[in-house]
Every structure is written in structure tokens, then in C-alpha cells.
Amino acid sequence: MSTTHEELRIEAPVDALDTVARLAASGRFAEYVVYERPGEWVFAGDTLGGVELDTDELRVSWDGQVRATTWVGRPAIALDEALASLPIGDRQAYGWIGFEFCAYTLDAEQHLEGVHELARLMVPRIEVRIDGSGMTIVGCDDAERDEIRAIVNAADGPDPLAEPVDIRADATDYRGRVATAVAEIAAGGYQKVILSRKVDLPFAVDMPATYRLGRAHNTPARSFLLRMGGLEAAGFSPELVAAVDEDGVVTTEPLAGTRAFGRGVAADSAARIDLESDPKEIVEHAVSVRTSVAEIESVAIPGTSSVSDFMTVRERGSVQHLASTVRGQLSEHHSHWEALEVLFPSVTASGIPKRESVDTIFRLDGAARGLYSGAVVTVSSEGVLEATLVLRAVYQQNGKAWLRAGAGVIEQSRPEREFEETCEKLASVSPYVVRRL
């Protein structure tokens, strides 16, 4: 397998969303990851190798060769060491970690019966990077570059049409599960838990078309589209779980507190005022920030943790949230992956305290979450890492497609309001789901 890593720079305006969606839909790439961060879009495909972490096995592949071993201990360390064993040079790795990844650090391994996949990382041979001034094609020969440009410049097809999705059916008794959690919180079991509900889709989904349509109507912190192994997903992430930059600064962005958005200026303004003054939402956000600060302090140099933009309102598609940013300087005694490990799962997708809330999620949410409330991850050979929270997404695997959304439950929660919040969040994706023909 070729490992050519030359670059071709094209200085010309590029429609980034259209470009990555075309590449994904082309059929040229068996596996791929699209990742959008502020100022840059990346399409990564044609796998050189990677790491697959299951509950019972670790598989490391490179240039067609696969090495399978058992593993013990912490999954973040297993991934870090496996990735470090690959000769990736200056390449990036892309992939995902599932919610169940957290079970090993939160004493919840007893809940993993029937769970198999924990994480997948791939090192691509080809990357197409798009920024504000043009496009860079990395890792392929002249013929492949011509092929990519032909895909990008092909004639436009018809605009995708979304399929109606019913998001209001309560097939898993979400209201009843919320009521159970409220009672457990009142009895002192924990402070907060994020319970979720799954909405099955009665048709196969065209993921690239759904991503293109959904991204045009959303304002995410990050977005992603992936096909890895048997899993496909497209999403519009509202927040970072963790980022560690080249200077070792660790960042997380807890969002907690939600109201609908996009219903008109007057309605949106009223909802914002209500959000900023609702004691339940303020408490929910404040305890999330406090937990995030404590987590970063556990891996940061003492005295470097800080909170900025405290309790500002950020608009994310069909909803608006209370948001804050928490940072700290990573200690030399901790790795980038350990920073992710301590912040994962996001406090705004699990609860407080994390151990008790994760136990409750396994008990009350039912089936495994998988990628939902996990993270899409990018990591460099130098360890620069970013993990974006997987919410506001559509999923497809083993012939089934679904949506999923949750809400934060505290003692003041009302089941009907939390159900309505899941509907508001689902509305970031449900109007844009395209049937695969």
C-alpha cells in the first residue's frame, strides 16, 4: 500500500460542505471520516491502518497486517500505546470512542455484558483539507488527485429531500424513567443524570445527503460524518468534551440548560430570558461547571484552571444552551489521553457525580448507548487531541437507523418538560434525515 504523503495546494474558494459531502457520497472510499472544526474541514479516507478496541480484544493494523491481543487496565492507555506503536509520522488519526469506554474508570464494568465495540481509530492515506482560502490534497498521486478533483467538480444533482420523522412517540417510557430518577435524586442517590431516548427510523438513511442538509441548518461547535466498519453517523456537535493543544492547554466546554431556538425572534428572545432566569437550568449548569473544573484540576498544574464565558447563551441549531469554557495547563505527569479520560464522558451527557450517574444510565437507559454521548476524536502523532461530543446525530448500523437525545434530570425536573427538551434537541436533526434510495 502506498504511503505517499505529498501535498497539492489549490488556492481558490471552495464550498467545504459540498466538497466533503461529494467525496463521502462518491463510493470511492470504503471508510472515511469528515471532521469540521472552526476554520477547517477535513475529509480523511483510504485507511493505512488503525486501532480497534473491543471489550475483549485490541487489534492494531498497518499496511494490511493485523495484530490482535487481549488488553487489561484502562482503555485510554491501551489506545495511546497502540497508536504510538504505528509509524504514522506526521499524519493524524481520526475515529470515535463510545459511551461505554467510561465503564473501566467509573467501576461500571459489570454493565458491559453484550457490549462489544469501545473505540475505533483510523490513520488515513488521503486527506482533503479545506480552509477559507482553498483546498489541500494530501497523500495521493497525480491520478488520484485528478480523480478527487473530478468528484468535487461533477455536475450538481437534485437537492436532497428529507423524510418526515415522528419524534414524539415515547416508546421507552421516557417520562416514567425521568420520574424514577427524580425520586432517586430526592433520596440522595446522586445530584443529576442525563437520561436519553432512542427514536428508531423505519428506513435506511443516506448519510452524506443528511449531513449536507443538516449542516446547512445547524450551527454546531464541530460537525462530523463517518463510515467506519459497520457504523455510519452524521452529527452536529454542540460542545467539546476535551481538547489538548500543542502547548498542553486542556479545554472543555460544558453546556447545560436548554430552550428551543429558531421559532422566531420574539419566541427565541422569550426563551432565552426564561433560560437565563430558570433556577433549575442555572443550578444544572453551575454544578456541571464545578465538576468540569474539578476534573481539569486533577490533571492540570495547580493554579492554572480557569472559567471563561461563564453561563453565556450559545445557539446550536434548534436549541440554545447555557455554556461555559473551562481550561487548565496539563501537568507533565499526565498525558493528553489521560486528560480526555478524566473528562469523559462529558458531564453534560452523564451526570453528577459521574460514577453514580453512569451507573444510573446503564440501569435506566436500557440498551448500550454506543456512539451517542461518546466522542469523535482526532489526534496527531505529537498528541494534540480533540474530542467532540456526539449529540444531535443520526446513526446507522446492522441495517438499522436511529436518532437519540437526552435531557439533564435533577430533583426539580418535571418528566413532561424533560421529554419536551428531548424533542427540541431531536429537532436539530429530524427535519433533515434523507432516505437512502
TrEMBL record:
Pfam families: Chorismate_bind (PF00425)
Source domain of life: Bacteria
Cofactor: Mg(2+)
GO molecular function: isochorismate synthase activity; metal ion binding; oxo-acid-lyase activity
Matches recorded under Gene3D superfamilies: Anthranilate synthase
Domain Chorismate-utilising enzyme C-terminal: start-end pairs: 172-425
NCBIfam families, A to Z: salicyl_syn
Name under which the protein is recorded: Salicylate synthase
